[in-house]
Design a protein that fits this description.
The chain is an alpha+beta fold. The protein contains 17 helices and 10 strands. It has an 8-stranded mixed β-sheet with strand order 1-10-9-2-3-6-5-4. A hairpin with a 4-residue loop joins strand 9 and strand 10. Helix 9 packs parallel to helix 11, helix 9 packs across helix 12 and helix 11 packs across helix 15. The longest helix has 20 residues.
């Protein structure tokens, strides 16, 4: 018999403005009025408990996808079948989009994507997620459901794979990069030993990933709060060279990160622009290296030009100093 998920009222969640928002309430109450369960899951719950900003709000339900569409139609809410094969429907409530996904369990995985079956088991849905801090749910009253011990990991600022780390990674090898990115973003740069060991053991699986998926995670990692510390570990183990295809300059990234932190209030460029600057600081300076990186990460022409210009300016500064 499956363990009963930990359930506890949480003051932070109960007081969250996004949970009290009429648009959110309308979605949750429409599902419940049809006799199904509805809980907010993942990033919005995690970030609220961490004191971080909340953007998207994802909702899990035990209602099958076709029932989700029907119940929102009865409630007068527009739906978009954005991912029916994986149980996801986007609903528009008071102009705000919400992704509503039916509880799932994995039937088969190949390291890039999963074949899923729908379920009404909340614990099974939690067990297929990547990290404990992403397997946290809350209802409309702010009651926290914690089937994988994520709250304790949040309190200790710890990124930990759910269950067997090797198994979680083999389900989707992108989780290797997500482990490093989440550790830089939420764990102060600390890397869970078991998670790090599994990532290094399973690194060959990164070759299965598309350049676009790798690019997306790398750029998010580079702008994380403690990116330099995590990137240094990745470089030490050769992971970064494998991903970027050449030598890296971790010290330059560290210097730029410190400068950015000191002048955070003065910056006028976007997070995407900051990521490009940090990528430029990190990679080798030869033009051929930049061309290879563009192909490897599928950089846009504009971003590749920015990287090249930034490296050229850095070389001129170094020569003059």
């Amino acid at each position: 018999m499956a363990a009963v998920p930990a359930v506890r009222p949480n003051p932070r969640l109960a007081a969250a403005s996004w949970l009290a928002a009429p648009a959110t309430r309308q979605v949750l109450e429409a599902i419940e009025a049809a006799g199904f369960g509805a809980r907010v899951v993942g990033g919005s719950v995690r970030n609220t408990l961490l004191g971080e900003p909340v953007s998207d709000i994802d909702i899990a339900t035990n209602a099958p996808p076709q029932d989700v569409i029907a119940l929102f139609a009865r409630a007068g809410l527009k739906t978009i079948p954005t991912g029916l094969a994986h149980g996801t429907v986007t609903v528009i409530s008071l102009g705000v989009p919400y992704e509503v996904t039916t509880l799932r369990r994995d039937v088969a995985t190949d390291g890039r994507r999963a074949t899923v079956a729908f379920t009404d088991d909340w614990s099974a849905d939690a067990a297929r997620r990547d990290f404990t801090i992403n397997a946290l749910y809350c209802d409309k009253a702010g009651v926290l459901f914690d089937p994988e011990g994520g709250l304790d990991d949040i309190e200790h600022r710890r990124i930990r794979f759910i269950g067997n780390a090797h198994a979680r990674i083999r389900e989707d090898y992108l989780r290797i990069l997500r482990f490093f990115r989440f550790s830089a973003q939420y764990a102060g740069g600390h890397l869970d030993a078991a998670g790090l060991g599994a990532c290094l053991d399973e690194r060959a699986g990164l070759k299965q990933l598309s350049a676009e998926r790798i690019h997306n995670e790398i750029m998010k990692l580079l702008v994380a709060a403690d990116a330099a510390a995590v990137v240094a570990v990745m470089a030490e183990h050769g992971l970064l060279g494998d991903l970027l295809g050449g030598a890296v300059d971790v010290r330059a990234l560290d210097r730029l990160s410190q400068l950015s932190a000191r002048h955070a209030g003065d910056r006028v460029y976007t997070a995407a622009g900051e990521a490009v600057l940090r990528l430029a600081a990190l990679i080798a300076r030869e033009p051929n290296e930049i061309k290879a990186l563009k192909a490897r990460l599928r950089l846009s022409n504009a971003d590749a030009d920015r990287v090249a210009a930034a490296r050229k300016a850095t070389s001129a500064i170094d020569a003059a100093s």
